[in-house]
């Protein structure tokens, strides 16, 4: 079993992972970013079409342009957010200001080709793989989805590719622990409501 | 770094993972299934709403009912599939018959609550985490998405939950190796088309 991890290692990685919204300005190795991209491009995809394209951004002027474009749509998003989401964001101090887009040493901007089978499931599988690799590298990331932001022009991305998310990546200043609903409320055996006994 | 895996272990897992469409009838431990569900429920989700619900199926009559419901929609799906996808499926011997839905010792049927923020990205992050845990357990799985199949009644799942995928899980008979486009064609630095030098 050459692919087998040490007992429980992946679960510890999964359980320990948290979203990070504040980053140190310390540099991050290019090798770590390569590993993260490697994890992303090996995700499963519909008909193996690999609809993902990643633009890695470390140029300060480009990061600033991305931040400006995102903050422009954020005010509108916050204003329109459903009540539940708005109160969740408020409790976490999530505002239309997105300093992490400049503070993180790297942004991985994730695009997908829209007209591919299962493009959305595929791109989110790729993002999930990258998030675990971020953790494996001892780094932190946020899955930031600036609804409605148009970054294609800033990054010279052809129009058939759609923005899925921006992953700012760096060394965490802090992270926010989120509880999870217990397994007994999420997993059932044979019929919904019938507990899956561990 | 208590969460840190051995050097490169996650990448080996990611690179080694393959879709499996044929399973041995050998049993799989309940503990392995629990680990897989644990990985799934710790995925990130929009506003931490955890829209996932998993129905684990090991009952033969329920598996048979699921297979019947899926094969009913498969004929129509194959008939309507775009040319690219149809030829991809044909080359792999993928037909409307889905014996793996009965052969695999376990099915994890994945549902999500539709009216949650970022429900689709969240559910596919959860599925991606589970696929890696399947590999970690030395097992195989397929991400099977029976377009249009209605399994809520069979599994007593409330109507506000939507089917995302079925993961048949078991010991692989074989798997299909899929090449990946190289990093140089998928990752760029600062501008699309500008190679991300490793």
User: Helix segment count of chain A?
Assistant: 8
Nearest-integer average pLDDT of chain A: 90
Percent of sequence in beta strands of chain A = 15-25%
Unreliable residue runs of chain A? none
| Quaternary structure of the protein | homodimer
| Helix fraction of chain A by DSSP (H/I, runs of at least 4) | 40-55%
Strand arrangement, major sheet of chain A: 2-3-5-4
- Give the beta-strand count of chain A: 7
Measured on Cα atoms, how large is the radius of gyration of chain A? 18 Å
- Span of the ends, CA to CA of chain A: 25 Å
The coarse overall form of chain A would be globular
What is the structural class of chain A?
alpha+beta
Quick one: which chains have the greatest interface?
Answer: A-B, 86 and 86 residues
H/E order of the elements of chain A? HEHEHHHEHEHEEHE
Major pleated sheet of chain A: 4 strands, antiparallel
